[in-house]
Amino acid sequence: MENILSIKNLSVSLSGKRGIVPILHNISLEVEQGHILGIVGESGSGKSMTAFAINQLLPGGRKSIVDGSISFCGEDLTEKTEKEMTKFRGKEIAMIFQEPMTCLNPVFTIGRQMKDVIMTHQKKSSKEAEKQAEEMLEKVHIRNPNRVLSCYPYELSGGMRQRVMIAIALSCSPKLLIADEPTTALDVTIQAQIIFLIKEACKATGTGVIFISHDLGVVSQLCDTIAVMYSGQIVEVGRAADVLAHPQHPYTKALLASVPSFTPREDGNDTLSAIPGMVPDPLEVITGCRFAPRCSYAMDICHKKVPPLQIFADGYSLHCHLQKEVEN
Ligand SMILES: Nc1ncnc2c1ncn2[C@@H]1O[C@H](COP(=O)(O)OP(=O)(O)OP(=O)(O)O)[C@@H](O)[C@H]1O
Ligand SMILES: [Mg+2]
Q1: Is there an atom of ligand 1 within 6 Å of 23 CB?
Q2: 284-321: pLDDT as tens digits
Q3: Distance from the CA of 111 to the center of ligand 1, in angstroms?
Q4: Which phi and psi angles does 207 have, rounded to 5°?
């Protein structure tokens, strides 16, 4: 299968009031056509910054310091000018966020906004764009597309607005869709419908998807591959089934232990183990593994040396001083 996106050794530092703040440390990721990559990790682990780095939309713009490469269909996005990037954003790389209200313009109807996006990226007449907008709404299972096209964003529910955002994101047949916590603000039933829509769209069109969430339960339902992030580093990447069934990194293990559905307790004690401590401030200087101060398996070396990247078959990799356990 062809890789749509290949991030290699990406490090990002932001330059701001606090000086130069390292945000991402040497991350590598791949997204295949028609596959869904989930990125999970606690708040502040760098999930959104990874998404912004791909789109070249980092806070501080060109003042941010980027090292490594982001190859999108063979082109290195880190070398593109702002003008060149506008050809990718929205058309080839689409993004959806947690709160669609921030992306929809409150003063224009849904129809007008959908038509604008379609006509910006494709050579279509107003009539053709309107027809496509209606079809896209049907694809995301909106029952009354004609009525919704004439609505203003505030007239729709949160779940409907997120469907509209997905329809807009997919209207230009992007090669890559980045969804940053798209279901976090929605109730569980609507969340399940949105997840189904993303999966359906990805499998039908071959769009590669990066699905960002702090919720391992959601990611497990949707993703082919899972990357676990901690404090700007990727600690473990692998096929979803492998990472969920045989987590190797102590952080992934702790994260799984904090989700009820992954930890059936035979003794009936259903208290969940929260991970003690907090994600370190990006400016905190940590020699060695950034998780070591919270890790119950930490050895001497973990506090002294950055863990090596151990690479295995099936796209599995582990960033840890511990050896990978041998499966029986
Ligand atoms: N504009 C900014 N300037 C400097 N640092 C920032 C800026 N925005 C975010 N950060 C820092 O970058 C780090 C990564 O943040 P990021 O938003 O990527 O986390 P996240 O994993 O998406 O978290 P969440 O689950 O809360 O969305 C955090 O330490 C955050 O404080
Ligand atoms: Mg975020």
Answers
A1: yes
A2: 888 999 999 999 999 999 999 999 999 998 889 999 99
A3: 33
A4: -60, 135
Which residues in 278-308 are b (16+ Cβ under 10 Å) and which e? ebbebeeeeebbbbbbbbeebeeebeeebbe
DSSP 8-state assignment for residue 89 = B
Q: How far apart are CA 100 and CA 115, in angstroms?
A: 17
pTM for the model stands at 0.91
Element (H, E) at 75: strand 75-76
308 lines ligand 1 (CB under 6 A): no
Q: Using one digit for the tens of pLDDT, what is the confidence trace for 193-208?
A: 888 889 988 898 999 9
Q: Pull the structure tokens for residue 71.
A: 């190859």
Phi-psi region of 59 (alpha: psi -120 to 50; beta: other; left: phi over 0): beta
Residue nearest to atom 16 of ligand 1 (CA): 46
Domains by residue range for the chain, with CATH: 3-92+172-319 (3.40.50.300)
The residue type of 27 is I
For 307, the 3-state DSSP assignment is coil
From the number of C-beta atoms within 10 Å of its C-beta (0-12, 13-18, 19+), residue 320 rates as buried
**Relative to the CA of 281, which ligand 1 atom is closest?**
29
Query: How many whole angstroms from 47 Cα to the centroid of ligand 2?
Result: 6
